Amino acid sequence: MTTEPRSRARRRHDTEQRLARDVDLWVASASPDGLPYLVPLSFDWDGEALLLATPAGSPTGRNLAAARTARLALGPTRDVTVIDGHVEVLRIDALPAQTGDRFAARTGFDPRTSAGSYLWFRITPRRIQAWREADELRGRELMRDGRWLV
Question: Which domains does the chain have, with CATH numbers?
Answer without folding.
Answer: 8-143 (2.30.110.10)
